[in-house]
C-alpha cells in the first residue's frame, strides 16, 4: 500500500487499495480458481457463497446485518448526544472503520500501539487509545506521527504517576513537538482491571500530567464492562463516580490547557447506562465530548452479546442483528448420535461459548432447513464435535450454518471475510489485520 497516496477525511482511498490485493492461499475458504485475481476483481464477479467455488469452512458476514448495526448505533449515539469512537480491536477491519466514520463516528478506539499503526496506515485521523502506553519505542513512533501530521488527533489513557513519568521521558527523548493528549483512567472498582482505584490517586496522576510538558490532560475515562459483579445499579454508580471526577477536575481547573473535556466509557453491554448517566453531566467550564466506545455491536453475535445487549432492556430503541454465520461441512457421521464438521478452534470463537448449530444446507438439494436436534458439543483445533438427536437429519457432505459467540474472537481467525447478501451473493471481502 502506497502510504503517500492522498486520503479523504474517512480514509477511503487507502482502504480502496485493499481491493488491489491478490487472492491466494493466504486466505482461507476463498475459491481456488480465483487465485491471482485481485480482491476487487473477485468481488465484481458477485459469486454465490454456496456454489461459487468457496471451500469449507467459510465464515460469512451478512451485508444487511452489518449495515443495520452500523446505522442503529449511529442513530443511538446521535439520539443520546454521544460522540462515538467504536472500538476497532473487534474487527481490525479498515473497511468497517471507514463505514463507521462515514456514519458520524468521531474516531476509532484502539487497545495497543500496533492497532494504532494499522489505523494510521489506513488513514484514520482520530484515535482513542483506551490503554496506558509506556513503551518508549511506541511513544517515539507516536511522537513522529503527531509531528508529521497536524490533523492527527490522538488521546491515550494514563493510570499511574509512574506511567505519566515514563510517557514524558520517552516523548522528551523523542523530541516530541506536540503534547500528547491523555485522559486519566478511573478503575471500575476494587479488583477491576486497569485504572486508578481512588479519586485521590486520579488527582495525583493529574498532578503528574500537569508537571509533564509533553502531556496535556483532556479528560477522564474508564470501562464499565469491568465493574465487578456488574448490574445496572453498580454500573451506574461507577459511571457517576467517573462523571463526578470530571466535574471535580474541571472545578480545580485541571483542563486549562484544552478547549474540550473528554469523558469516555462504554462497550456493547452497558451503553444504555452510559447514555443515562452522561445525560446527567452538569454544565462544565468547557464543551464536553461524551465519547462512547462500543465495538462488538458491529457484528453482534449469537451468544454472549445476545444475552448482554442493552437493547434487551430498551427494545424500543432497536435490536442488533447477529451478522456472522460460519458454514462448516459434515466430514464424518460415525454413529446416530455423533457427527463431525471441518471447523474447529482455528475457525470459530470458543472463548465464551460454543457455536450454535442454526441451519443445515442439504448437500443433495441445496435446501436450507433448521438444525433441529443438532448441537455443537465441543471443538478440537480443526474439528467441531456435533451431537445429534434421533430427529436430526444430517449426513456427510451437508453444511451446517453455525452462530458464534464473541465478535472479537470471530473476526481474528479470518483475514478476508466474504460479505454476503441474504441470497448468498458475495458483494465484497472484509480484510482484517490482527
Ligand atoms: C477499554 C474498553 N473499551 C471499550 C471496549 C468495547 O467493548 P465491547 O467489546 O463490549 O464493544 C472494550 C472491550 O473489551 C474495552 O476493553
Automatic annotation (TrEMBL):
EC number(s) given by UniProt: 5.1.1.1
Presence of the UniProt keyword Isomerase in the record: yes
Keywords, alphabetical: Isomerase
Domain of life: Bacteria
Stated name of the protein: Alanine racemase
Record organism: Streptomyces achmelvichensis
